[in-house]
Design goal:
Protein name: TMM27 protein
Keywords: Cell membrane, Glycoprotein, Membrane, Phosphoprotein, Signal, Transmembrane, Transmembrane helix
Strand order of the largest sheet: 1-2
Number of strands: 4
Strand content: 5-15%
Subcellular location: Cell membrane
Distance between the termini: 128 Å
Order of helices and strands: HEEHHHEE
Structural class: mainly alpha
Largest sheet: 2 strands, antiparallel
Membrane topology: Single-pass type I membrane protein
InterPro entries: Collectrin, Collectrin_dom
Number of helices: 4
Length: 184
Amino acid sequence: YAWDANEEYLFKAMVAFAMRRYSSKSTTQISNVLLCNVTDRVSFWFVVTDSSKNVTTVPGSEVEAAIRMNRNRINSAFLLSDKTLQFLKITSTLSPPVEPSTPVWLIVFGVVLCLIVAGILLLVVAGIRQGKTKNKQSTERENLEEKGEVAVTVENGIPCEALDLKAGHINGVFAADDERFTSL
């Protein structure tokens, strides 16, 4: 925007406001703020005078402290920021740290809770799959037995040879039935 006499007046008023707020005295007027060497690029230097004392200018440290204290109000008046409105010899103010809308502990809690729920769902799905495969294996075994095919049976996790149910099986221990009693 164009820097004109109205903008200069607003700047002088803001500096006078800052000086009044800083020193808690109402002695600083707009006429006490003097702009010097104003250029087309809107760069200039200014001096604040004090008519109540014999000193003609206010010390620079007081002016810096006043501007530092009210910098956000000055920036807001010109709709600028610390990057666009620069005061030489006055360091820019740090913006306050950004507070997240949700607390950090709530985010961590949500992540942990999601992991727990995912683990539980994984265990449930794995159990259902395992149950389906066991049911499928047992029905296949029953179908083979009904057809009369020889199937390998598993007892206590050890595969046993299957019996031929049609031919039968002779146990060798009880093969000799003629000797009922053993001799001494």
